[in-house]
Design a protein that fits this description.
It is built from four helices and no strands. The protein has 134 residues and is mainly α. Helix 3 packs across helix 4. 2% of the residues are buried.
């Protein structure tokens, strides 16, 4: 049987316009090209870091710099003060708990002000609402 081509099936008689295909989002890998690294959307990595730090029970401020800070502050009151290791640990626990609470209150102030970035005025407002002098 002979193959018969209808006139409407040929390209030159077609009424439709054929647009060129848009380039694909993932380009075909070339032989010498370097594949671009995967990028996360803005904010995703920050949320993952926050979740990771919330899961860990360890302290975030390093011990030696905190100990030096405590000694420096104590020098103003008395020069020959010594501290037990447990006392430094208790001070560090308390100071980190205070800072976490302060930043929680500050983030509420930031949300209320309808902006994203924590600014010094937000921390000052949180301290004033808490009734602290700063």
């Amino acid at each position: 049987m002979d193959t018969f081509v209808y006139k409407r099936d040929t390209q030159e008689n077609s009424n439709c316009v054929r647009w060129p295909k848009p380039p694909s989002k993932t380009p075909a890998p070339s032989t010498g090209g370097v594949k671009t690294p995967h990028r996360y959307r803005p904010g995703i990595v920050a949320l993952c870091v926050i979740k990771r730090y919330q899961k860990t029970p360890k302290l975030l401020i390093r011990k030696l710099p905190f100990q030096c800070l405590v000694w420096e502050i104590a020098q103003d009151f008395k020069t020959d003060l010594g501290f037990q290791r447990a006392a430094i640990g208790a001070l560090q626990e308390a100071s980190e708990a205070y800072l976490v609470g302060l930043f929680e209150d500050t983030s509420l102030c930031v949300i209320h002000a309808k902006h994203v970035t924590i600014m010094p005025k937000d921390i000052q407002l949180a301290c004033r609402i808490r009734g602290e002098r700063a």
